[in-house]
Amino acid sequence: MELRTLRVAEQTQVDANEYRVTLTLSVADAQALWTAAAERALQAPGMTLGDVLDTLGPREDPSIADCIAMLAVPNAIPGCSLEDARIRSIEEAGAAPIALSRLPAPSFGIKAGGAFSAHA
Fold it and tell me: Suppose 37 and one of 70, 93, 94, 99 were both cysteines; which one would form an S-S bond, judging by CB atoms 3.0 to 4.6 Å apart?
């Protein structure tokens, strides 16, 4: 996986305490991505290999967006809460984002200076 674009966090015009961070990735080895995501998923309490397969798909045909979400969505950013996380392919840019609530790691919100909160 190669990091192609990293934009500096920018303030939105909606709330001076909200920031958006954008990453653009190019996946070069889907099986390596799946392996790393599966290892992270199996660290969650109660997670089984069956749960991993349901969430990430099989190693031979992984759900790329779910694998990236497993690795890219942080468990916590001190002093922040993650409001939204969207991961999709460039081709799916017009499609609805994946539902992160399916993942063992909760969805979070980012608000500068705000408290950490998790949304299942």
Answer: 70
Average pLDDT (17-24) is: 84
Q: How far is CA 70 from CA 20, 98, 101, in A?
A: 19, 12, 11
Q: Is the pTM value of this prediction over 0.85?
A: no
| Cα distance between residue 12 and residue 59, in whole Å | 38
DSSP the chain: -EEEEEEEEEE-SS-TT-EEEEEEEE-S-HHHHHHHHHHHHTTSTT--HHHHHHHH--TTS--HHHHHHHHHS-S--TT----------GGGTTSPPP-GGGSSSPEE---TTPPP-EE-
The identity of residue 30, as a single letter, is A
Strand partners, 24: 5
Beta carbons within 8 Å of 30's beta carbon, 6+ residues apart:
62, 64, 67
> What would the pLDDT profile of 103-114 be if each residue is shown by its tens digit?
444 434 434 443
